[in-house]
């Protein structure tokens, strides 16, 4: 599993509801799997460097059976460069995939753009995961965007746990545990996500009563160097909203500025 120091403490999200995808920075594969493991089956690998995959003769592509996904999680997928996959339910469906659909998948993995929305009845897939330097640039398609909102609610609390470790009696740091963010709060951020928003754990403030995570709207970016540059400019100005964790009630709330 990743070392705590490696975990990105800024989350950028640009939501495209029409085409059912999210562009993101700061959400990594291991966080995706831990949040959505119940919905994952086998993974057909479009771009990867995983050495313990199996080979499918029909598509001439590698795949990871469900039982081996956690081994892939433990690999350093960030170092692959391009890391792209689509999930599928059954081998029978994969072995019946038409040539046209396979061509669309190869294009998708190569260009990270869809020719048509990439949800296939043969595969029964819920996701398409297209990353370059995983956690730096991720474009993820969701058959049901509710899965993304669930992921976001989990990832924020996960990252806060890593950002604020606690020490045991031996002085060893360990991850704190925080409740997931309420779904209605995540959904209240949809309008900001559509414009391109950053939530910063790096910029969090706290006192005895609460932890505050600032949120800025910075626009639509596909180049994450440009996104981060814009984020660094934005932190000099008041944020649009704050996600607040109440330490006493252990509940989340939102405040608009």
Keywords for this structure?
257 residues; alpha+beta; 2 domains; 13-stranded antiparallel β-sheet; disordered N terminus; Oxalate:formate antiporter
Question: What is the H/E order?
Answer: EEHEEEHEHHEEHEEHHEEEHEE
Number of domains: 2
Rg for CA atoms: 19 Å
Mass-distribution shape: elongated
How far the N terminus sits from the C terminus, by CA atoms, comes to 37 Å
Count of DSSP E strands?
A: 15
> How much of the sequence is in beta strands?
25-35%
Q: Helix/strand/pairing class, anyone?
A: alpha+beta
- Pick out the low-confidence regions: 1-5
Q: Explain this structure to me?
A:
It comes from Bacillus benzoevorans. This protein has 257 residues and is α+β, with helices and mostly antiparallel strands. The protein has two domains: 29-134, no CATH class; 151-256, no CATH class. Helix content is 28%, strand content 29%. The protein contains eight helices and 15 strands. A hairpin with a 3-residue loop joins strand 12 (205-206) and strand 13 (210-217). The longest helix has 18 residues, at 146-163.
């Amino acid at each position: 599993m990743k070392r705590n120091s490696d975990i990105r403490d800024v989350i950028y999200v640009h939501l495209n509801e029409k085409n059912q995808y999210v562009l993101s920075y700061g959400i990594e594969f291991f966080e995706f799997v831990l949040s959505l493991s119940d919905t994952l089956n086998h993974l057909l690998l479009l771009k990867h460097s995983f050495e313990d995959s199996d080979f499918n003769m029909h598509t001439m592509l590698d795949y990871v059976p469900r039982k081996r996904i956690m081994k892939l999680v433990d690999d350093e997928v960030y170092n692959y460069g391009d890391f792209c996959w689509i999930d599928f339910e059954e081998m029978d469906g994969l072995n019946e995939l038409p040539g046209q659909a396979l061509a669309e998948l190869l294009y998708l993995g190569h260009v990270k753009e869809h020719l048509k929305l990439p949800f296939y009845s043969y595969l029964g897939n819920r996701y398409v995961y297209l990353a370059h330097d995983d956690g730096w640039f991720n474009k993820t398609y969701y058959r049901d965007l509710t899965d993304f909102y669930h992921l976001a609610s989990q990832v924020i609390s996960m990252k806060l746990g890593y950002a604020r470790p606690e020490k045991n009696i031996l002085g060893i740091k360990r991850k704190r545990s925080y409740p997931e963010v309420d779904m209605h709060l995540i959904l209240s951020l949809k309008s900001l996500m559509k414009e391109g928003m950053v939530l910063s754990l790096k910029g969090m403030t706290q006192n005895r009563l609460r932890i505050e995570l600032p949120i800025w709207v910075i626009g639509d970016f596909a180049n994450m160097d440009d996104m981060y540059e814009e984020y660094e400019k934005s932190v000099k100005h008041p944020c649009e909203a704050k996600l607040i964790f109440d330490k006493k009630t252990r509940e989340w709330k939102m405040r608009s500025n």
